[in-house]
Amino acid sequence: MKRLLLLCALLPFVVSAQNSLNTTLLYHWMDSTIIGTTLYDNAYNEVWGMAYNNKEFAVIGSTDGTHIFDVTDPVASTQVAYIPGAAQGAAIVHRDYHDFDGYLYIVCDEGSSTLQIVDISNLPNSFNIVYDSDSLIKRAHNIFIDESTSHLYVCSEKQIGVGNNFNALHIYDLSNPELPTHWYTYNDVSHVHDAYVKNDTAFLNCGNQGLRIVDFSMVAPLLAVMHEELGSLTTYPDAGYNHSGWLTDDGNYYVMADENHGYEMKILDVSDYSNPTVVSTFFSGVSQMESMPHNQIINGNYVYTAHYHDGIYIHDISDPNNPILVAFYDTFNPTHYNSYMGAWGVYPFLPSGNILVSDMQTGLYVFEIDYDGHTLLEENSVNNLKLSPNPTKEMLNIQFEGQGLLKMFDVSGKLLQTKVVMGGEVLNLTELQSGFYVVQLEIEKKVYHQKFIKQ
Predict the structure, then answer these.
(1) Cα–Cα distance between 132 and 236 in angstroms, integer?
(2) Distance of CA 21 to CAs 44, 401, 448, Å?
(3) What is the longest distance spanned by two Cα atoms in the chain?
(4) CA-to-CA separations, 246 to 40, 134, 337, in angstroms, rounded
């Protein structure tokens, strides 16, 4: 983080972004009576989506509990269920959700909380809390359900009756969805923040310990058959606190984010689990030094990212080597990048195609996306500066329109090069050491910045 603050001091840059691109707001809800937290002043947290009985539902967490909305007709959306949290109030920052087979699973990561299981199969007419106890889970940070194996993966779970100790990962069997049973415990790392799991192959985002890919499919607890680590990644561009990720439908690529200011998301080629490789990086780019991705989900060729401070961002990753920004909407419009504020979560799987977003301060949003409008962005770029390929080994193509004054800086802020360039010029980087660099381009008294990685 020290290097980012230094660059901010040495490189004055202009942050200019539109409020939205190719998005239509269909519905917005917030309740001013719900108090914010003492840490981040967030009244709201995670968002989730569900479809039952030919209806679509949005789930959003708050410091009070869980709110479920019928968003089938977004303009006429209405709250149809409220589940009070076992723990409530200004100390409650995190709740997390996943539904499975007509049940909604709810965890919280603060206070004297519980695992809550809610029968939501009869929504919007009724719901039934079938389990609300700390006998299995008192606190947990995130959950993921592998529906193909009926396994509930619980990340950073507080151990019952063992002080403040946590298990990195607990796995429960949901053969009886109303009464999970413990199946396996994974503590090879000290912390698992989030997980994406498919057929019991888990992509584990382990905070400062990077990424682990672990096969749990052969586990047989009674026979003492253990898990197998298939691969890991601890050194990579913008490595920080490995926060979250999602796998593409074909299983060949994994998008992950590190929860640090100015750190870009990574697209990994994971076709060979033993050798995950970063093929490109990207993020909102609103502030090259301060923007911070939080949670992302992939649906088809698109990655949907909730960016703290910046809002919802959607990129086309049909070419994983060249992500293209398709749409965005600023749900928070910050005046600063301090702390953690703004967009928390996103859900893109509703049958209608509408997108759900939660904002920590401003609540629930339902959006419609114009996926065919992204060509407008390419013709009228927000940044007006594109560097490719990025990361690069030898050559860097500077793409913009017209003529400009280019300056290149290293991570310490040292000026390495100044020259007048034309759009489309290619720089030879063979003499540069591997690492991070910043290009500054001045065009008609406007200054643009872009970070690139020399491999």
Answers:
(1) 41
(2) 24, 21, 20
(3) 70
(4) 26, 29, 25
Tokens of 138: 């008192």
- Residue 406: its pLDDT value, please? 86
- Most confident of the following: 14-18, 103-107, 223-227: 103-107
Q: Report the mean per-residue pLDDT for the chain.
A: 89
Q: What is the DSSP string of 51-120?
A: EETTEEEEEEEESSEEEEEE-SSGGG-EEEEEEE-SS-STT---EEEEEETTEEEEEESSSS--EEEEE-
H or E element, residue 357: strand 355-359
| Strand blocks (E) in 140-217 | 142-146, 151-158, 166-173, 181-186, 194-198, 201-205, 211-215
Distances (CA, A) of 140 to 80, 143, 306: 26, 8, 21
Q: How many residues does the chain have?
A: 455
Sorted by where each starts, the structural domains of the chain and their CATH numbers stand as 19-379 (2.130.10.10), 386-454 (2.60.40.3080)
Phi, psi of 223 (to 5 degrees): -100, 5
- Residue 364, helix vs strand vs coil: strand
- Whether residue 203 contacts residue 192, with contact meaning beta carbons closer than 8 Å, is answered with no
Q: Taking a C-beta distance cutoff of 8 angstroms, is the pair 190, 169 a contact?
A: no
Using only C-alpha atoms, the chain has a radius of gyration, in whole angstroms, of: 22
Q: Is 255:298 a contact under the CB 8 Å cutoff? A: yes
pLDDT band at 259 (very low <50, low <70, confident <90, very high): very high
Written as six digits, the tokens of 312 are 């919802």
Q: Report if pTM > 0.85.
A: no
- Name, in order, each residue with C-beta under 8 angstroms of 425's C-beta and a sequence gap of 6 or more: 397, 398
> Do the Cβ atoms of 163 and 94 come closer than 8 Å?
no
Whole-Å CA distances, 200 to 8, 115, 146, 203, 214: 43, 22, 7, 10, 8
List, in sequence order, every beta strand (DSSP E) within 360-400: 363-369, 386-388, 395-399
- Calpha distance 119→393 (Å, rounded): 53
